[in-house]
Q: What sequence folds into this?
């Protein structure tokens, strides 16, 4: 398909005529995607999310629990064997990270499990201390997991391990034994998780880079469609995840190998193709030829199998008639130039991608400290989790619940939804799933199965839970409940009928407690953080644009890398904060009008990234540079002061017309959002006045 600028060339038949200087045209702005909607409905409760089934995780979870439960039961006794089975859940963490990082991270997770068991055993003297200890573990585990970016299941299994340890017989005298048994289970989980290291040592990094190429293919297919903005965000997430995992693998010795250099080079191409595709997506309102997305899919396959690399000649047909400096031509050029790198199994160490200008990861102390800052969402999430889980357990004790810890566990699972809407969905799924799962678990226990059958059943239910949990929490709850009942009954035998009845009641109470915690505690944290997140993106975009346009500034490769990294991180944070804020009720009514502002800010940031990726970006005059800087500062001030911006006339950026377009769109959307806020506030004042008048009339009628 020919680019739109080439149409003008068809009018000039004289080959001797000098070709005019190319200027990218200001095209029609792509339509804004429909804002994300989070609802409590049948599809959200019972529908399957997109994605595949987690077969590998399911098999590993089954093996880890079966082995650990069997070993501890044979060495000690079945009740302590349940703790080993819980300790084996280390296998559920760090499933996608490089093995060199996973080895250390899982050891720390196992240590966390051991400490949770020790604290639970020490706190088992009274139910009250046990409830507080479970809440403390929930809060601390949430803080550490979110600060260190530990993926799901997050704090849930730390709480489960602590809760079950409070009922295992033995008391304080058995704390060392209980902790040791949990360590055995954690060690077995570590071994099972690391089984692929000798055979496919670089598989996690290969998969991350391949997934990034696949998301880029999806982005190329989404150009010219209404879902562009959402797919753009998904592609950015995949690119950022690929960067993170490749960085985590950069250990001494590994980073100096040709295979590691190839991965870094492919990662560079992923970033360049992403930014080129971004600029094309902002300039087109019609789809790209399908061959471009198919070529990106071929590059994804070639990451792990170089022999599957597509031939760059496949792009020759779509490149015909395009100007060499056109946006589409640059995109196709990046795709074609990535093929030689993907085709080779090794890459020169000092070549393209030899240096990433970054450390593997920030220090643990810095990550934990920044997570507690006033601007971080981790702090309110941590406090909400810890307070709610402790209060739920204490409420259960006050109500006379024998198994109060199930209330705490349920509240933890429910609160992992994040915002109010997702929490309501998860609480409903948890309650309904548990009610069905109790029948299965109670039925098995009533048959009084021998220990080998209990071990096998618990392991199978654990594996099935991990198979479906990524697709729907309701079905996972059905399968997780029998596993939890089998472990709890083995750790502390209890009449089956009473166990089943209390499990259902405790789940309902825990679900209600989780919903109350989500509604009452820091419900507006995400919505309150959203304006500041928009400001941070504008600040970073202003820095990038002014440095790119300034003819007196030379951006070094390291500086370019860090600018790109920081702006991309803020863009991902922006969408994450908005997606969380829009699920808050009733705060969502004031968040929804900001969707066009979020999209315009997001597009401005991506256009700044695209300009930063140019090898020789055209500079601007100093007066133009100053006016652009003033425009960004005015938009920032308007967002901070919650007023309409007074932007005035923007300078004409001939070489970057889409930046002008998005800045105007951002100004317009901010004015609209302010107007809607004012209308909403006026309506609220009118309703309040009507209520006061009605109350006054009622009081007057009562006096008469």
A:
């Amino acid at each position: 398909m020919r680019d739109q600028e080439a149409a003008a060339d068809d009018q000039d038949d004289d080959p001797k005529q000098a070709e005019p200087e190319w200027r990218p045209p200001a095209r029609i702005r792509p339509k804004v995607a429909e804002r994300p909607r989070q609802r409590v409905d049948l599809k959200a409760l019972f529908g399957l999310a997109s994605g595949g089934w987690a077969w590998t995780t399911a098999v590993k979870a089954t093996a880890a629990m079966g082995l650990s439960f069997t070993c501890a039961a044979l060495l000690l006794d079945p009740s302590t064997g349940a703790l080993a089975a819980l300790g084996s859940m280390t296998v559920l963490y760090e499933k996608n990270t490089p093995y060199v990082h996973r080895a250390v991270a899982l050891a720390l997770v196992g240590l966390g499990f051991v400490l949770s068991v020790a604290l639970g055993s020490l706190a088992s003297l009274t139910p009250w201390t046990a409830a507080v200890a479970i809440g403390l573990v929930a809060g601390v585990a949430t803080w550490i997991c979110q600060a260190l970016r530990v993926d799901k299941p997050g704090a849930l299994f730390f709480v489960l391990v602590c809760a079950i340890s409070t009922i295992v017989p033995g008391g304080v005298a058995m704390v060392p034994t209980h902790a040791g048994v949990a360590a055995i289970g954690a060690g077995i989980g570590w071994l099972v998780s690391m089984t692929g290291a000798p055979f496919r040592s670089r598989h996690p990094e290969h998969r991350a880079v391949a997934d990034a190429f696949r998301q880029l293919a999806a982005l190329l297919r989404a150009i010219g469609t209404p879902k562009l903005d959402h797919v753009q965000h998904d592609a950015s997430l995949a690119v950022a995840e690929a960067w993170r995992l490749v960085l985590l693998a950069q250990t001494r010795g590994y980073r100096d190998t040709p295979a590691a250099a190839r991965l870094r080079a492919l990662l560079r191409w992923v970033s360049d193709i992403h930014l080129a595709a971004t600029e094309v997506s902002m300039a087109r309102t019609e789809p790209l030829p399908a061959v471009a997305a198919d070529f990106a899919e071929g590059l994804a396959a070639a990451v792990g199998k170089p022999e599957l690399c597509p031939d760059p000649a496949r792009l020759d047909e779509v490149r015909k008639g395009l100007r060499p400096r056109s946006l589409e031509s640059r995109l196709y050029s990046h795709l074609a130039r990535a093929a030689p790198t993907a085709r080779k199994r090794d890459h020169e160490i000092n070549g393209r991608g030899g240096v990433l200008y970054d450390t593997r990861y920030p220090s643990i102390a810095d990550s934990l400290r920044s997570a507690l800052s006033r601007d971080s969402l981790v702090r309110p999430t941590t406090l909400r989790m810890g307070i709610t889980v402790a209060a739920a357990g204490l409420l259960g004790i006050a109500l006379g619940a024998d198994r109060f810890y199930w209330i705490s566990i349920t509240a933890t699972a429910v609160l992992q939804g994040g915002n109010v809407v997702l929490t309501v969905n998860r609480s409903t799924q948890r309650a309904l799933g548990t009610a069905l799962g109790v029948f299965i678990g109670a039925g098995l226990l009533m048959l009084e199965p021998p220990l080998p059958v209990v071990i096998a059943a618990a392991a199978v239910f654990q594996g099935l839970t991990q198979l479906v949990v990524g697709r729907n929490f309701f079905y996972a709850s059905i399968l997780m409940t029998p596993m939890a009942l089998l472990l709890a009954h083995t750790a502390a035998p209890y009449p089956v009928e009473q166990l089943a009845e209390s499990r259902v009641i405790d789940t309902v109470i825990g679900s209600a407690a989780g919903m109350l915690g989500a509604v009452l505690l820091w419900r507006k944290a995400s919505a309150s953080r959203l304006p500041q997140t928009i400001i941070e993106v504008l600040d970073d975009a202003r820095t990038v644009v002014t440095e790119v346009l300034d003819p007196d500034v030379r951006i070094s490769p390291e500086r370019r890398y860090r600018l790109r990294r920081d702006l991309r991180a803020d863009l991902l944070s922006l969408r994450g904060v908005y997606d969380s804020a829009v699920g808050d009720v009733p705060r969502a009514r004031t968040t929804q009008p900001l969707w066009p502002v979020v999209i315009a800010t997001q597009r401005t940031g991506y256009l700044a990234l695209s300009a930063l990726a140019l090898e020789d970006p055209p500079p601007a005059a100093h007066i133009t540079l100053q006016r652009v800087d003033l425009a960004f500062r005015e938009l920032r001030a308007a967002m901070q002061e919650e007023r309409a911006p007074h932007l005035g006339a923007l300078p004409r950026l001939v070489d970057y017309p889409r930046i002008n377009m998005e800045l105007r769109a951002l100004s317009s959307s901010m004015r609209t959002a302010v107007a809607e806020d004012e209308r909403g506030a006026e309506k609220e004042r009118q309703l309040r006045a009507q209520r006061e008048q009605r109350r006054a009339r009622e009081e007057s009628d009562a006096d008469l």
Q: What stands out?
A: The CA atoms of residues 207 and 677 lie 45 Å apart. Confidence is low (pLDDT under 50) at residues 1-26.
